[in-house]
Write a structure and sequence with these properties.
heterodimer; A: 225 residues; alpha+beta; five-stranded antiparallel β-sheet; 8 helices; 5 strands; 56% helix; 14% strand; B: 74 residues; five-stranded mixed β-sheet; 1 helix; 6 strands
């Protein structure tokens, strides 16, 4: 239990507080929604082809829908840690370096190296391993082995002039003070298979997800009796 | 030497520095701390590896106090 809940929770008072059980239910719901999107399109594609083989192009279009919809969701998940785009004002190099220096003071050597390599800061929590970026975070849940799950959150500080290191530090401090509150305040962008998000991440960021998955597996092993 | 810093567009700004045995420096730090709280910042202190805590009064014994802005879902 956190010493004090995040003050930002007052702005989202209608949301139930996130915890491991609620995240499990969210995962199940996202899986059910994905199945509900995919199965009808596949079934329709097969049925159309069986009824009228000349409708093959329509069947193929139906299969394409079954493939594209989960991919679009995964893209939305990967976007939470995307660093490009015009969302932020590019900070001067000196400010960026100072912010990264402060961030480096807050984390250990491994996390510093990971940030330098991938732009994401790994942080172990009770819910799993977090990968924190300037405008969002990916929670790698424990368990699931190779087919583990991730929860992608869009969350940030509303000052576009802040350098990226400070943006991450804001999120990291909030996460460390109240992890479940952090997951409540953040907007859920995607919950699903890790491999789907990995494919959509920039190549430079994938090592962070792989390391996060390995760390999450270790968390899972430690949790076993 | 303890430091009160604010994360801002410059990377960060040191607002105050003090030692517990310097009452004037502590007083100036407390004033700077309250001013930032009034501006809507939250004060954070690291409390161990991977842990942080929000504080409402300046912890005079803390090595580093960081002022942060509120976060929100994007």
């Amino acid at each position: 239990m956190a010493a004090e809940p995040l003050p930002e929770l007052a702005a989202v008072h209608w949301r139930p507080r996130a915890d491991a059980q609620r995240l499990d239910r969210t995962s199940l719901m996202w899986t059910a929604i994905t199945v509900a999107h995919v199965v009808p399109f596949i079934a329709a594609g097969i049925a159309l082809f069986l009824v009228q083989p000349l409708a093959l192009p329509v069947s193929l279009a139906s299969f394409a829908h079954a493939w594209v919809i989960p991919e679009l969701y995964a893209q939305r998940g990967a976007n939470v840690v995307r660093t490009g785009g015009s969302r932020f004002i590019r900070a001067p190099a000196g400010a960026e370096a100072r912010s990264v220096g402060l961030l480096g003071d807050l984390v250990g050597h491994e996390a510093r190296a990971m940030h330098a390599q991938t732009g994401l800061v790994p942080e172990r929590g009770r819910l799993g391993v977090w990968l924190v970026g300037p405008a969002g975070a990916v929670l790698v849940r424990a368990g699931g082995g190779r087919f583990g799950r991730v929860v992608c959150y869009c969350v940030g500080v509303n000052d576009p002039s802040l350098p990226s290191g400070d943006r991450i530090a804001h999120l990291l401090l909030a996460l460390r003070s109240d992890e479940e509150g952090f997951a409540t305040v953040a907007n859920l962008a995607f919950c699903g298979a890790r491999w789907r998000v990995r494919r959509r991440l920039a190549a430079a960021m994938r090592p962070a997800l792989d390391a996060g998955a390995a760390a999450a597996r270790r968390l899972d092993t430690r949790a076993m009796p | 030497m303890s430091r009160l810093i604010r994360m801002d567009q410059t990377g960060h700004t040191t607002l105050a520095q003090w030692t517990a045995d310097d009452p004037q420096a502590v007083e100036a730090a407390v004033a700077a701390f309250r001013e930032e709280l009034d501006r809507g910042y939250f004060a954070m202190v690291s409390t161990g590896e991977g842990q942080a805590e929000q504080v409402r009064e300046l912890p005079v014994g803390a090595e580093l106090v960081i002022m942060r802005l509120p976060i929100s879902g994007g």
